[in-house]
Design brief:
The chain is mostly beta strands and about 160 residues long. It contains 1 helix and 11 strands. It has a single domain, classed as Sandwich (Jelly Rolls).
């Protein structure tokens, strides 16, 4: 009887443990990259991201990221990330991404890709503030940027 009970508890733990792992892992509410035009990224080209699955009365962390290849001529990239929320004034952040320290090898092409993600800040979602639209564009002096491959945003629930 004791062995049978131990066996049942053991199998129950084996069945429940993976479920607890999935519950404990918070997936981003939004994690998306968009490709930039192959001929370059014009300062007038605005990338749009939208999320409508955020929970009201919660705080979220907003991050931006960029992936550039070796033809990108600069060591940094100035971005504007604009957050548009219904019935609220737009919020605009300007950030500088330094691209000199983060590199990965793109095995499909054999080239070095510079990848950088940076936290912008946090924001709180109130009732009736969905969908939230995020707009991203560059504010570099050079109007056409060559070598920028993808730009992305990430929205995750804050751990506060």
């Amino acid at each position: 009887m004791k062995n049978h009970l131990s066996s049942v508890i053991y199998h129950l733990l084996l069945a429940v443990a993976p479920c607890l792992l999935f519950i404990g892992c918070e997936r981003p509410a939004l994690y998306s990259y968009q490709s930039v035009a192959a001929d370059g990224w014009w300062c007038t080209d605005t990338l749009r991201f939208e999320t409508d699955n955020l929970t009201a009365n919660k705080t979220y962390v907003l991050r931006a990221g960029v992936r550039c290849n070796n033809s990108y001529a600069f060591q940094n990239l100035w971005l504007v990330v604009e957050r548009r929320v219904p019935s609220e004034e737009n919020h605009r952040d300007t950030l500088q991404l330094l691209l000199t320290d983060d590199r990965t090898l793109d095995f499909s092409s054999g080239s070095i890709v510079h990848e950088k993600e940076q936290t912008i800040g946090t924001f709180r979602v109130r009732q009736s503030q969905q969908p939230i639209e995020l707009l991203v564009y560059h504010v570099m002096e050079e109007q056409l940027l060559k070598g920028v491959e993808e730009v992305g945003v990430q929205v995750t629930l804050s751990g506060e």
